[in-house]
Amino acid sequence: MNDSKDSNRRVRRSRDEWQQLITEYESENLTQKEFCAKHNLGSVSFSKWYHRLKSTQGNDFVALPAIGTEKAENVSGVTQPCNHFEVRLELGDGLVLHLSRQ
Questions:
Q1: Which domain holds residue 87?
Q2: Is 88 inside any structural domain?
């Protein structure tokens, strides 16, 4: 067998594996190039994953507080919570997502 061929084989890593590598990189005092050489990583892949994972940090689910507790009176005079809502998200490039329930 040709050992140099095996050493150049591409390794697929999961998101969690890349996150662990990036955490390790940040704890070491190495440049990206040095870290990649030390761990036999492709520098382009490392850079791509580094920026991908850094740009998504803090962009997880955001809980929004309830706005008011409006109540409405129905025909029989009983007060019940109002179930209407309206959400408008402006996503950029003129794209708007509008959800509502009356």
A1: 71-101
A2: yes
